[in-house]
Amino acid sequence: MSTTNDQVQKNDQSETKISENENKENTPSPTLFLSQISNSPLEYGYSFWFSKRPSKNANSTNATQATPANYDANLKLVGTFNTVEKFWYYYAHMTRPHDLVGHADILMFKEGMRPLWEDDANKNGGKWIVRLKKGLANRCWENLILAILGEQFMVGEEICGAVVSCRYQEDLISIWNKTCSNQAVTSRIKDTLKRILNLPPSTILEYKSHNDSLKDNSSFRNTLYCDK
User: Fold this and answer.
1) Where do the record's region annotations for Disordered lie (predicted)?
2) What is the largest CA-CA distance in the chain?
3) Residue 132 φ then ψ, to 5°
């Protein structure tokens, strides 16, 4: 995790693009995993959120420049749940990533946390990022959030939440953790993320601290690459 985005050549390997053939085999069924504990409470409560950037021609100052304040204003709380049944109630009625149009995010964070860089629970943390070809976000997003609910990352309270970010050219999946300086934790999260999403060994993931995001007002620029 020593090379910055600016130092890496812009080639086909510098952005992680998962091909469909690399992922549709040997993928575990997250639905089956959670259905086996359908009457059990979750370890933590979580909330679903939604955010959509206003279009450029919208009659709003938010459309002119993306800032943390504007992002906060655009966040909408969908619902909070602490059991598997309540999760499926919300999830079954939510729009799937591939149906979103424009610049939009679906977010799932622990109850009481706002999905913002500057939130007290997030300010010392960061996130792993996986870039996806269009058409793969639905399955990857479902696998990721079910793995979080099933406590498959095994890092205690370090997981804050996850985001699927739908953009015009690509989709991005990210998982947020509390402590960006804890390399043992971030490495475990990275390894589990690659397994959960069934990523090929050569996949290059990106990491960015929220402090760096606040400095450059960007979620996905100037990230750190990690290829091991």
Assistant:
1) 1-32
2) 50
3) -120, 145
**Joined tokens for residue 82:** 């602490």
Copy the structure tokens of residue 143: 């696998």
Query: Taking a C-beta distance cutoff of 8 angstroms, is the pair 222, 4 a contact?
Result: yes
First-last CA distance in the chain = 9
pLDDT in tens, the chain (228 residues): 444 444 333 344 444 444 444 444 455 555 555 455 457 899 999 999 999 877 665 444 444 455 666 777 889 999 999 999 999 999 999 999 999 888 899 999 999 999 999 999 999 999 999 999 888 999 999 999 999 999 999 998 999 999 999 988 889 999 999 999 999 999 999 999 999 999 887 778 999 999 888 887 767 665 766 655
Please give the backbone phi and psi of residue 160, each rounded to the nearest 5 degrees, phi first.
-95, -40
Query: What is the rounded (10 degree) CA torsion for 70, 73, 74, 78?
Result: 150
Whole-angstrom CA distances from 109 to 39, 47, 116, 130 are 21, 5, 10, 18
CATH fit for domain 3-226, picks 3.30.760.10, 3.30.70.1130, 3.30.70.890, 3.90.220.20:
3.30.760.10
pTM of the full predicted structure?
Answer: 0.76
